[in-house]
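Cross-check.
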Amino acid sequence: MILKDARLFVANFVKGKYTPEEYASFLAWLQDASIEELGVVAEEHEALFEQWSLPDVAPSPEWALQLEQRLDQADERVKGKSVRKMSPARFMKNPWIAAASVVLLLSGGYFLINDHSAGKKAATADGHAEALYNMFAVPRGGAQQEFTLADGSKIWLNAASTLKYPVSFNSAERTVELSGEGYFEVTGNATKPFHVKIKGAEIEVLGTHFNVKAYDEESTSKTTLVDGAVKVIRGLETLQLKPGDQAEINYPPSGSDPSMRLIRGIDIDAALSWKNGGLDFKDDKLYTVMQAIARCYDLDIRYESGVPNISFTGNFSRKSNISQILNQLESQGIHCKRDGKIITVMH
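Predicted model, tokenized:
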């Protein structure tokens, strides 16, 4: 992405017309953008924000405080650099600058921003205002990140993943939306069940630990329960999971209705390997393996003669560089050619 693309994304962001992939690309661009480029993007956002006459939606005091604390933490780690703090009023005037500051100062490679398109105040059927939402995202190539919601629930996000969540849980339910992969440690609250929305389904819990893998580009989503109990709901179909169970939803390429099945006796360590700095595969399709590698190392995967219908078993460390991983694939008969960030599978 270049400055021209970033300005186009901002225009689409203001109108609420953008995909998770475009959002992740913009986040990656922000990390390397110059101060001058950040200024251009900030001014572009402010001008378009006023042009579209969107309501003034300021981050909540809690959100502003959290961002200030993150800047304080960054200030302790960045020696010899001047960190300019911003007041909540300044956040409301130009939130892109504040958000970009976090990206530039923190080394983790994640992004936290107030989502104007999701957070517009609109009257609901019962006369109440809709909640304001934040977005937490880890771009392609980013390290997994941990953060805590307002209710104390902890979430870890994998690379190329986005979580949309309310600034505060004021309703009778706690609902978040996930695109990508995340591990959840949900704080128990019998009066406020916790819901995770993924593509075509919803996960309902009271307090438990579980992993969800639901990338838009993959043909399956998987919910793996570590402890406690959860329900996975798709339309009129519901699966009740016990520890060690996995609910798998398959999305046919033809566009027909997805199917859901229950798998028992899942290898929990393998399912959570990404959270512990690894990539663990057991008889997984090569396409799934290469997609996981692409997300972790920000690569473009291509196939010389179509996607081979073969499976792969093995594990990698996220500390390994891409050359080491390609050598490991080669040792198992999977031949790849690298040209910069393009990996062509020759098998």
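DSSP finds nine helices and 19 strands in the chain. Residues 125 and 155 are 31 Å apart (CA to CA). Passed to J.P. for a second look.
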